[in-house]
Every structure is written in C-alpha cells, then in structure tokens.
Amino acid sequence: MLTLLLAAAALAQEPRKPLEFNIKWVNPPVKLPPGVTHHTLPSTAMGVDVGFNVYLPPSYAASQDRFPVLYWLHGAGGDENGGLPIATQFDAAIRAGQLPPAIMVIPNGGRRSEYRDWEPQRIMPESFIIRDLVPHIDKTYRTIRERRARWIEGMSMGGNGALKLALRHPELFSSVVAYAGSYRPLPADGILYPAIVPESRAWIAWLAQWYSADHDPFKLAEMNRFRLDGQRIRLVAGTRDVSFEDSEVLHAHFQKTGVNHEYEVLLGVAHNTAAYYERVGLEGFRFHLPALGPSAVAK
C-alpha cells in the first residue's frame, strides 16, 4: 500500500510536459464574401504576422458614420477563415434591414490555443487580440471607440474564448454571446465526451494538465462579477451538443453567483456551427444591440 502511495505521489510530482502547437498564423482565403477583406498585423508578443478578416457594411464607404464592432472567434482547428460564413449571414441581415450596419472582425486565434497566452511557446492569442488587434481596428477603421460598441462572440473553443476574454476584460467588451463552449475544467483522462477519437483524447488530457483559474469561466465569474458593469452575457447550447452539460452547469453557477445573463437551449441541435447560426444567429447578433444605448450608429 505504501509503495502504491509513493508511486502515485511521484507521478503527481512529475513536471508537466509543455504543450506543442502547430499553428499557421496567416491563411489568405481563396474566395472572400462581399464586404470582407483579409489582412495581417504583427503580433508584438509573438513576433509574427497574424491574419484576420474584416467585414465592412455596405454603407461604410459612402458615409462618415462610425460603427460598432463584433469580434468573432473560431473554434479549435480553425483559423481566421472559420467565420466567413458568419460574416455572410451578418451581411445578409444588414442588407435586409434586420440589423443596423456594423463591422465584424475575425482573427486567427490559433489552432487549439484556447485563446490564452502560452508564453514559453510564444503562442499569445489573447495578447494579440487585446493589445494589438483591438487598438489597430479602432485606429484604422471608423469604429465607435467605446466599450458600449465593442462586442465579442464565438463557437466551441471560440465560444469559450469569447466568454473568457469578456470576463477577463470587461472594460473592453460590453456584450458577449458564447455558443457551445466547453467551460468546465477538462478531464484528466481526456474523455471529454463519449466516443472521442484517440488523437483528441490525448490532446485534452495533455491540455488538462495546464488548468489555470485565470482562464476558468466559473472562477472568472466569481472574481470579476463586480467589474462586469452591466455586461450583457448570452449562453447558447444544443441538447445534442457534446458540451451541453457544460452550459447547463455554467448557467446554474452564474445564477448562484449573481451574474446576470441570458441562456437559451436549442432542442435537437448538435455541435455544428451552421446549425446554431441557422437557428439563432440573428437573435445572437441582435442581443448585442441594447449595449449601444439609444443610438444604433454614432455620427
């Protein structure tokens, strides 16, 4: 018995193996939807150029108006092109008069980065978005350079990332919509959901070793609940989604903690970006609008 305890203790004290990332930071799209252009921006923290797409509404070129900005974050394995179908839907809603004109920015957050900084590997997506990209967008485009007009949302890893960045930086973002994120601490055995493929299971188990309360939405809600300053929060989860229980538990935690939020459950929806946005994408876009106040566009 003592031998087993000593072996377990020794195993627990083994140094964690640093994560290995394989990220291509710039990925020019083959075809761009209407209103979208691809750009790169140097990351001061990483020392590399990072790709991002910008959607400008039809009225941008012909006016001097300033516009709100929605930052859209892609899921694991994706890049800056993962949100192009969302930009197409965003554009259609604006052209149809269902939304006021707004800008959308889709950054490359890095494959499997969890939208957190990994300093030893110089994988720094949070620093890039917060320190480089947001100031660059406000400097380069006619944005409403105020918190009330800066929103963020995403799907899967991007939903988790959007929520974390909003909770970590409530002074920047007035509204967040998170679709189908995995919010709870990852399981040490890597079994995030039944029938997970071996490669994904190994990655999850590896990633779980690097848990940090600073990137845990449950802990962030507790630590920063008095700093949210009316931040609008919307969680969306499908009943057939592998991450459904995470949203259920986080919703209950927000209720217990006193974090004001909206929670919508979609019957029969699995972990599929198109399915989510076909059902409630427009409602998600509209959710941000009250953060602006009485005026939809600042002159």
Question: What would you say this structure looks like, in words?
Answer:
The termini are far apart. The chain has a single domain (34-289), classed as 3-Layer(aba) Sandwich (Rossmann fold). Helix content is 33%, strand content 16%. Helix 2 (84-95) crosses helix 8 and helix 6 (217-224) runs parallel beside helix 7. It has helices spanning 2-12, 84-95, 125-140, 157-168, 198-208, 217-224, 244-257, 273-287; strands spanning 36-42, 49-55, 69-73, 103-107, 150-155, 175-179, 232-238, 262-266. It is an alpha/beta fold and 299 residues long.
Write a brief caption for the model:
By secondary structure, this protein is α/β, with parallel strands linked by helices. It is built from 8 helices and 8 strands; from the N terminus they run αβββαβαβαβααβαβα. The chain has a single domain, classed as Rossmann fold (3-Layer(aba) Sandwich).
